[in-house]
Amino acid sequence: MEETFKFILQARQKFIELIDSLSVEQLNNIPSGFNNNIIWNFGHIVVSTQTLVYVRTGIKSDTTWVKYNEDYKKDTKPTRFVEQTEIDELKAIAIKSIEEICKDYENNVFGTITTFSTATYGYPMETIEEVVALTSGHDNVHYGYALAQRRLVQ
Description:
154 residues, 62% helix, 3% strand, globular
């Protein structure tokens, strides 16, 4: 699992580098053919990982503690201009949340989880290792969308 967490952090750092290479206007631009933008894709991975790892597994009861969840959760789309302050906060949460999940994993917080399947993949996950692996793949799907969008907003 150490390598998996390391990979997730490295991938998120690459996403942050992409964000840092663009203007706030470019991050908020919804390219033709898309229903979201680069900053939505980034915010979505930030809130989704916390929700999948803690709420869907039954470790926490609801998402009220997940900052920006209502803006970036599944089945949402951009409805407002995201300012630099929020972008900076999302970048910090992106790294901090994975570090916290890693620490909780090391402390056996996820000893027993509630099995669940996501609507997207439909694969039942019975262990936290499976959930973390899924979130790694999910992060990279949205990073790929953001890379495609970058070409259209520059």
